[in-house]
Amino acid sequence: MKLKQSLLLIITTFVLLVSTNSHAGRQGINFYYGAGAGAALPEASDPAPIGEIMFGAEEDGWALEIIGYTSTETGTDNNAVDYSISGRHFGIAYRTIERHNNWFKFKVSSTTMDFDNSNTPIDYETKGTSYTFGWGIRINREARLEIDYNFYNSDNLNDPVHIVSARYFWGGSEYQGRDF
């Protein structure tokens, strides 16, 4: 078998296995929205505190998410490299079945990240792929909290950017568990 055929077989098998453990048949399309905060850590710089807003459409454990984020200006030891970050993620996410008010999330996103250097005229936009692993907990019937680790890799950057964030959001899949 050629490499392309092997990859197609592996991906198809993975999707079938994941779908057997999905929320299939339990919910229709639902929308959710929320806000979050976290920190972005480019390899060569100090961490930048970020704020996020999100919107998503979810069905049977799969979701399309759009997340916009921006950071405050981050000071470093060298004033010439003070910076801020802004950008967006657009990706497909999978949430495991909620058990005991918890779930895990896996996401792959197309990401744009803009670096605005404060004291130099050098600003640049990067485009790449983000890989996210997260854990979520239901706060009440209508609200959920997710804590995500995001690994962003771009050909325009020498080193990856790591982002850790917590997001509080409303809506989404219908609550099926015990009463609060």
Would you spell out the secondary-structure blueprint of this structure?
Layout (H helix, E strand, L loop, with lengths): L2 H18 L9 E13 L5 E12 L2 E10 L11 E13 L6 E16 L5 E16 L4 E12 L6 E11 L9
Antiparallel strand pairs: 1-2, 1-8, 2-3, 3-4, 4-5, 5-6, 6-7, 7-8
Structural features, described:
There is one protein chain. The chain has a single domain, classed as Porin. The radius of gyration is 18 Å and the shape is globular. The protein contains 1 helix and 8 strands. It is mainly beta and 180 residues long. The relative contact order is 0.19. A hairpin with a 5-residue loop joins strand 5 and strand 6. Strands 1-2-3-4-5-6-7-8 form an 8-stranded antiparallel barrel. The model has no long low-confidence stretch (mean pLDDT 82).
| Gyration radius, in Å | 18 Å
Number of strands: 8
Shape: globular
**CATH hierarchy, class:** Mainly Beta
Number of domains: 1
Order of helices and strands: HEEEEEEEE
Tally of alpha and pi helices:
1
Estimate percent helicity: 10-25%
- Strand neighbour order, sheet with most strands: 1-2-3-4-5-6-7-8
Q: What are the segments in which pLDDT stays under 50 over at least 5 consecutive residues?
A: none
β-strand amount? over 45%
**Whole-number mean pLDDT:** 82
Classification by helices and strands: mainly beta
Annotated CATH architecture: Beta Barrel
Largest sheet: 8 strands, antiparallel, barrel
Distance between the termini: 53 Å
CATH topology: Porin
Key features?
mainly beta; 8 strands; Porin; 57% strand; eight-stranded antiparallel beta barrel; 180 residues; 1 helix
